[in-house]
Amino acid sequence: MTEKAKGKMEQAKGKAKEAAGKVTGNERMQAEGKVDETKGKAKEAMAEAKDRARGAKDSLKGRNDEV
Question: Could you give the CA distance from residue 4 to residue 24 in angstroms, rounded to a whole number?
């Protein structure tokens, strides 16, 4: 599973946990859900940044050969 997919999964888990906390009135579970969702967003953002960096690196690789 890719890091981006893991981030999406963690976000979904967080949303579910937050919703369950709201329904049951469990503020701690609600807060944990928000934290999980935030962690998931951070993981997804990191994976996207790594992908962009890899793409930039790959596009620059061939330029040295042309000079």
Answer: 30
Position 63 scores a pLDDT of 67
Which DSSP symbol is given to 67?
Answer: -
Residues in the chain: 67
Q: Tell how far CA 47 is from the center of its chain.
A: 7
Mean pLDDT rounded to a whole number for the chain: 90
Distance (Å, whole) CA 43 – CA 1 = 13
Residue 22 CB partners (closer than 8 Å, separation 6+) = 30
Name the burial class of residue 10, with classes exposed (0-12), middle (13-18) and buried (19+) by CB atoms within 10 angstroms of its CB: buried
